[in-house]
Amino acid sequence: MLKKVSLLAAGLLATAIAWAAPTVEMTTNLGKFTLELFPDKAPKTVEMFLYNAKHGFYEATIFHRVIDGFMIQGGGFNSSMEEKKTLTPALQNEAATGGPNLRGTVAMARTRDPHSARVQFFINLKDNSFLNFRASNVDNFGYTVFGKVTQGMEVVDKIAKVPTGNAGYYENVPTTPVVIQDVKIISEK
């Protein structure tokens, strides 16, 4: 009987592991944090983020836009504020299924064009419901949430407190670069 219970427990554990959400560990010069991704809500966005992580795209990029009480944005510029050439095409916006922009969630940054997200992402520092999908017109399309911080939110909050200024055309740029040193995939399923 004990052997049957052990086999059943092992089978349940294997099933739970197979259905676990993809997770990544992001290391910055101010500390590490872990993201759980939402492939069930934003499959194409998660696929693109993992592709870029696997290919080292995010290494040596920075958090180039930091607004305490709102969000921190990164993943597209180096420490000289030069935009990095992207590896992937623009994404179809998945904000309608991605979920709400709550504190600790990670979402895709984009231009006014709702389908222009490529590599830049932001982490919400508070609930930002005005960024949620409300209608399929340009003004209310929303920003695709594709994950959340599960460990290390104190590091995200630390990044939010760095001094910022202007750098050329850009505002809210940390005066000392906050560098993404590594994005390591912990699990993909």
UniProtKB/TrEMBL annotation:
It catalyses: [protein]-peptidylproline (omega=180) = [protein]-peptidylproline (omega=0). It is an enzyme of class 5 (isomerase). Keywords: Isomerase, Rotamase, Signal. Residues 28-185 form the PPIase cyclophilin-type domain. Residues 1-20 form the signal peptide. InterPro entries: Cyclophilin-like_dom_sf (IPR029000), Cyclophilin-type_PPIase_CS (IPR020892), Cyclophilin-type_PPIase_dom (IPR002130), E_coli_cyclophilin_A-like (IPR044665). GO terms for molecular function: peptidyl-prolyl cis-trans isomerase activity. It comes from the Bacteria. Its EC number is 5.2.1.8. PPIases accelerate the folding of proteins. It catalyzes the cis-trans isomerization of proline imidic peptide bonds in oligopeptides. Belongs to the cyclophilin-type PPIase family. This is Peptidyl-prolyl cis-trans isomerase. It comes from Dechloromonas hankyongensis.
